[in-house]
Specification:
Layout: E1 4-7, E2 10-13, H1 14-25, H2 35-49, E3 63-69, E4 78-84, E5 89-90, E6 93-99, E7 105-112, E8 116-123, E9 126-133, E10 136-140, E11 167-169, E12 179-181
């Protein structure tokens, strides 16, 4: 039996709604669409990480994207969180978090621009990250339990482009991530 769902004045059966959600989800990279991860992140952001900031956030600031990838080949995916809106973004870039599988912060990146490139090359057992800053690429290497948090203070990378084997995260045009609200 099909269930009727009311959406903005129109009636839509549950099969059509389900098909619509699947189609919408397929528009985004799969590493960014897991509902359970999104719900866990919403709780983390609202109840822990940003609980003291919530009163200052406008609706436009209460949006995020995530991307799951295993940076250190331990079989567990780390989670990048991209904040959006003027509270978290300025002329130099936006705030990003890198979390472990337990939701513990590995690195809080400031003034960082998307996309982020994850290179297959490793330093200290973790993938090298590349980001663009002031028109050049900056290389972020894992050291002492974290990545550098401010790419703008790093020297230019020793090359002018990511390798052809880099994983691309948060590429709004080529590989878009799903956006969630908290």
């Amino acid at each position: 039996m099909k269930k009727k769902v009311q959406t903005s004045g129109e009636s839509m059966d549950s099969t059509a709604l389900s098909d619509e959600r699947v189609q919408e989800k397929s528009m985004y990279v799969s590493q960014s669409t897991d509902e359970q991860t999104a719900n866990n992140l919403k709780n983390f952001l609202s109840l822990e990480y940003l609980k003291d900031d919530l009163e200052f956030l406008q609706p436009i600031d209460r949006k995020f994207q995530f991307y799951k990838t295993d940076l250190n080949d331990d079989g567990n995916e780390e989670i990048f969180v991209r904040f959006m809106g003027p509270y978290f973004c300025g002329s130099g870039g936006c705030t990003f978090l890198l979390l472990d599988k337990y939701g513990e912060i590995i690195t809080k990146f400031t003034v960082t621009r998307a996309p982020i490139f994850v290179e297959p090359t490793k330093t200290n057992g973790w993938s090298i990250l590349l980001v663009r800053d002031s028109g050049v690429f900056k290389e972020l290497s894992f050291k002492d339990g974290s990545y550098p948090n401010n790419p703008s203070i790093l020297d230019k990378a020793p090359y002018d482009a990511p390798s052809g084997h880099a994983q691309v995260m948060f590429d709004d045009e080529g590989f878009p991530c799903q956006t969630f609200e908290f």
